Amino acid sequence: MDISTISSIKNISFGKGAFSNLKKVIKERQSIQERRSMSTEFAIYIDNFFESNESMNNLFKTFENTEIHYIDSSKEPTTSLINSLRDMHLAQNKTPAGLVAIGGGVTMDIVKALSNLLNNPGNAEDYQGWDLVGNRGVYKIGVPTLSGTGAESSRTCVLINEETGLKLGMNSDFTLFDELVLDPDLTKSVPTETFFYTLTDAYFHCIEPLSGRQRNLFADSYAKMGKSLCEEIFTLDNIKSDEGRTKAMLASYFGGIAIANSMTALVHPFSAGLSVVLQVPHTLANCLVMLAMEEYYPIEHRVISEAIEKHEIRVPQGICKDLSDKQYNSLFDSSIIHEKPLYNALGDEFKKILTKDKVIEIFNRI
Ligand SMILES: [Fe+2]
């Protein structure tokens, strides 16, 4: 794989308590805007899970020129949501100086997309695809409160166009955050099972590129670091200890970079099929697929199986048993459509290997 230029995030505050740096990070940007005689208004988008978090609210009260918007992260972001948020900001007659995302993948993707749209003409759906964003977006700061999705370091933000049914990201260097605040204390309140499943997303973002045919040393190096951190966390007695949460935050970041500069292989395409046809959440779907793929990933299958057992994680069983022919056909279609990662995993012959019978046989194990 040839990569000529690799874009990266400028500043990262990392470590326990890093969240208290957010005020300083915003203030520095506001000072730059002030010197340019431009708007200093910041908009903070935050997962509504934190709406009643007293220490966060007290901190926000000390911020100048900032407005808070709560996000319902139970719904996947749509292009129409991004268009309406853009309209809301434009109705105030000024483009904000900066945006902050505090939350998981959904909140981060909303802010990444909004940032692009505020500085580009047209609507969000015009930028779903690869390298379609022409202008740098509004300055944006990411503060993840969940570790694993890699949304904090990826160059995409996935949106659903409800009119066409298209689920696709704005893949662009401009989608990358300008700054990150990585504070492992922010993931303290995540339930253990959610923490586990989300962490395994980072693991798959690392092991899939490493198992592929289209490799590059840049992505491989980040993938190796992320993989090794995940495996260290799995061996801990408590994956949510200070050590576990700190390593998970880095593993997520490394996994996001690995995947942004490389490609998934077998797990994510099958997982996408499960999510599209049976609405299984992404991180759970990944694990279910891995548990059915021992023949392709014997070592990683063992790592995940042992981690599930050690940490007493509940795994739903029999999800794909006794489905209708129509559902099996849809599972096949919505997995096999991801040709690039499947080619990455198995080469030119992937269609001969992943016949309809074979794909359904794999799903039947789930
Ligand atoms: Fe993923």
In short:
This protein is of the alpha/beta class.
**Got a strand count?**
9
Order of helices and strands: EHEHEHEHEEEEEHHHHHHHHHH
CATH architecture type of the largest domain: 3-Layer(aba) Sandwich
Gyration radius, rounded: 20 Å
Could you characterize the architecture of this molecule?
This protein has 366 residues and is an alpha/beta fold. The chain folds into two domains: 11-187, Rossmann fold (3-Layer(aba) Sandwich), CATH 3.40.50; 192-364, Dehydroquinate synthase-like - alpha domain (Dehydroquinate synthase-like, alpha domain, Up-down Bundle). It is built from 14 helices and nine strands. The chain has a six-stranded parallel sheet, sandwiched between helices. A hairpin with a 4-residue loop joins strand 7 and strand 8 (166-171). The longest helix is centred in the middle third of the chain and has 20 residues, at 192-211. The protein is globular. It starts with 10 loop residues before the first strand and ends with a helix. The mean pLDDT is 95. The structure holds fe (ii) ion (FE2).
